[in-house]
Design goal:
11% helix; 3 domains; Immunoglobulin-like; Deoxyribonuclease I, Chain A; mainly beta; seven-stranded antiparallel sheet
Length: 549
C-alpha cells in the first residue's frame, strides 16, 4: 500500500491532521488470544522525521508493560536486515521494553530512544499514539537512513496481532508543507501575563556549571510568574535574589517569592498575598493589577506511583472546589482566574489528568464530590505546549534514561476568564542561529535541566463587573484604628457585602449587604495587625488594606 502526505504533522496528542492521511485498517477481532488488538496504522513524513499514527483497541501505556514492536525495512530490500513477515528490517524497536536493535550485514546492536530521536505522545495511557523518529541516524558508528521507499510492520510480540496482517505495507517519502506551530518568545501584547514553569533538577539553578544557562533562558522569555519545582536546598529569598540579578524590576520593586516545602517555589512580579501547602504542592494567591489569581504549583509523585499521584490530584481539585466556595485556606471571589502549573509527572493512568480537567475526583469519600472546575460550569483547559522549532509537545527528555521523551509539565487554566494567546516549550537546540543571537541564547541552554522551560501567555478576560476597582472609591478612616472604623464608598448605587480577611485569606468578619454608602464597623475584637477589607458589588470587588492598632 502507498501513502502520500502533504501537510506537516505535529506530535501533540491532537489527531486532526491525520484525517488527511491514508491509513491501513486492520481486520476486526483478528488478534490471537492474549494479544493486543491493533486497529489502524498511518504514516507520514517531513524533511527530518517519520511520523506514525497507531491505534489499538484497548488503552495501554506505550512505554511499559507491552510488547508492541515497530519494524522498518529502511531500503525496502527483504534480503538485508532481519527477516520477518516478508521484509528485511534494519530497525526494530520494542516500545514496552524501551529497547530496539539495528541490523547490519555482519552484526547487530542494541539501540535506545535517544539513538533514533524517538518521541511518542501521549505519555499517559491511551489507545492511540503519535510516534516520530529521525529519518537519518548514526547507529553504532554507522549511518542508517530511511530510504525514499520503506516497508513498515507493527507487531505485538512474536505471535500477536500485526499490521499489515498479510502482505507488505510500503511507504514512499513525499513532499510536504513545512508549517511548524506558531510561537513567539515575546508577548504579543505587553498586557498579557506570562506564566512559566520549570523543574530545576535538584537545585541545579544554583550550580555554577548550569547557572548561566538558566539566566539566559529567563532573560530571553521574561516571565511574569514562575512556578519552580525541585528547589530543595535553597529558600525563596535566594531565588528572588537570582531573579532580581537577572531581571531587575523597576521602581525598586523586588521579585516576590514564596516556598512550600519540600521543593515548590513560586515567584512573581506581583504581590503574593498568601500560600498554603496541598500535600507536596502549593497554592498561592497573587494580586495582579486588576484582580487576584490563584496559582497552584505542582510536583506530583513520579514514575509508577499511580496511587499517590491520583491522591494528590484528588486533593488539589478538592482544594479548588472549596476555594471557589470560599471554604478553604485561600477563599477566592467569583471568577478569580485559576492556573494549575508544574511538573505533573503524568506518565501513568490518564484518569489523573482527567481529574484535573474535569474535576472528576476518584476517591470522593476522602476528597469530596466531583464538580465543574471552571466558573462557567465547564472543564478547565490545557495549554498545548509545543516546542520551539520542532513539531513536538514533550516537555521532558533525558538521554540517559530508558524512558523516552514525555509530556510531564502542564499548564491548566480556567478558560472562562483567561484567553490563551501563546504557549511554547523553549527548545534552544532547535532555534535558528538568528533567534539564538537575537535573544542571547546558546544552542545547548535547554540542557540546564532535563525539563524544558514552558511558558503560556494569558489575556485576562474578567467581566468588568467582577474586576477589582482601585482608587479613591473605597475609603477607610481612621486607618490605622483600634476600635471603630468608618467605611465609605462613593458610588451610591452599590449593593455590597463587606468582608475582612487576615493576610492568610481567612475570613474574620462578614456583614450582609448595606444600602447606603457609609458603614461603621466595630473591629475592637481583632488582634493588632494588617488585614484586607473587601466590598463586593455588582460593579466589582473593592479592596483596601486595614491596619488594626
Amino acid at each position: 500500500m502507498h501513502y502520500a502526505t502533504h501537510a506537516q504533522l505535529w506530535i501533540d496528542e491532537q489527531f486532526d491532521e491525520w484525517a488527511e492521511q491514508d491509513r491501513y485498517i486492520d481486520a476486526d477481532d483478528d488478534a490471537p488470544l492474549g494479544s493486543k488488538e491493533l486497529i489502524h496504522l498511518a504514516i507520514a513524513n517531513d524533511e527530518n522525521f517519520l511520523f506514525i499514527d497507531l491505534k489499538l483497541q484497548e488503552e495501554i501505556n506505550l512505554q511499559e508493560q507491552n510488547n508492541i514492536t515497530l519494524y522498518i525495512d529502511t531500503d525496502a530490500n527483504p534480503n538485508t536486515g532481519r527477516a520477518i513477515e516478508g521484509i528485511g528490517a534494519e530497525l526494530q524497536f520494542n516500545f514496552g521494553q524501551r529497547i530496539g536493535r539495528v541490523y547490519f550485514s555482519n552484526f547487530s546492536s542494541d539501540i535506545y530512544h535517544n539513538d533514533l530521536g524517538l518521541v511518542s505522545i501521549p505519555t499517559v495511557t491511551s489507545n492511540r499514539f503519535e510516534i516520530a523518529l529521525r529519518r537519518n541516524n548514526l547507529l553504532s558508528g554507522r549511518t542508517v537512513n530511511l530510504g525514499s521507499t520503506i516497508h513498515v510492520l507493527v507487531k505485538d510480540g512474536s505471535n500477536g496481532d500485526q499490521i499489515p496482517s498479510s502482505g507488505l505495507l510500503t511507504y514512499s517519502m513525499e513532499e510536504f508543507d513545512n508549517e511548524l506551530p506558531d510561537f513567539s518568545l515575546d508577548k504579543k501584547d505587553s498586557k498579557h501575563i506570562r506564566v512559566s514553569s520549570l523543574n530545576c533538577l535538584r537545585d541545579q539553578i544554583f550550580d555554577p556549571e548550569y547557572q548561566d544557562k538558566f539566566r539566559r533562558l529567563f532573560q530571553a522569555t521574561q516571565p511574569d510568574i514562575i512556578a519552580f519545582q525541585e528547589i530543595y536546598d535553597h529558600g525563596a529569598q535566594a531565588v528572588s535574589q537570582l531573579l532580581q540579578d537577572w531581571m531587575p524590576l523597576q521602581d525598586d520593586k523586588m521579585w516576590q517569592c514564596d516556598k512550600v516545602n519540600p521543593d515548590i517555589i513560586t515567584c512573581s512580579k506581583y504581590p503574593i498575598l498568601t500560600s498554603t501547602p496541598i500535600d507536596g504542592n502549593g497554592a498561592f494567591l497573587l494580586q495582579l493589577p486588576e484582580q487576584k489569581l490563584l496559582l497552584i504549583n505542582t510536583h506530583l509523585p513520579c514514575c509508577g506511583n499511580n496511587t499517590d499521584r491520583q491522591a494528590e490530584v484528588d486533593r488539589i481539585m478538592g482544594f479548588v472546589r472549596e476555594s471557589k466556595a470560599e471554604n478553604s485556606d485561600i477563599p477566592i471571589a467569583f471568577q478569580t482566574p485559576i492556573i494549575i502549573a508544574g511538573d505533573m509527572n503524568f506518565v501513568g493512568d490518564v484518569r489523573q489528568r482527567q481529574t484535573i480537567l474535569r474535576g472528576d475526583i476518584k476517591t470522593e469519600t476522602i476528597y469530596g464530590s466531583d464538580f465543574e472546575p471552571d466558573w462557567d460550569d465547564s472543564n478547565i483547559e490545557m495549554a498545548y505546549i509545543m516546542q520551539t522549532g520542532i513539531p513536538f509537545a514533550h516537555t521532558w527528555l533525558n538521554n540517559f534514561s530508558s524512558f523516552g521523551a514525555g509530556w510531564l509539565d502542564y499548564i491548566f487554566y480556567t478558560g472562562s476568564v483567561l484567553i490563551l494567546q501563546n504557549s511554547f516549550g523553549l527548545n534552544t537546540a532547535q532555534l535558528s542561529s538568528e533567534l539564538l543571537n537575537q535573544y542571547g541564547l546558546l544552542r545547548n541552554d535547554d540542557l540546564a535541566s532535563d525539563h524544558y522551560l514552558i511558558s503560556a501567555d494569558f489575556e485576562m478576560d474578567i467581566p468588568s463587573a467582577v474586576k477589582e476597582i482601585s482608587g479613591p472609591k473605597l475609603i477607610l478612616h481612621p486607618n490605622p484604628t483600634d476600635n471603630q472604623l468608618t467605611v465609605q464608598w462613593s458610588d451610591q448605587s452599590l449593593i455590597t457585602e463587606l468582608k475582612i480577611t487576615d493576610l492568610s485569606g481567612k475570613v474574620v468578619l462578614v456583614s450582609k449587604p448595606y444600602p447606603g454608602p457609609t458603614q461603621f464597623v466595630d473591629i475592637s475584637y481583632l488582634t493588632s495587625g494588617m488585614y484586607f477589607l473587601h466590598i463586593r458589588s455588582r460593579r466589582g470587588v473593592l479592596t483596601e488594606i486595614l491596619v488594626k492598632k
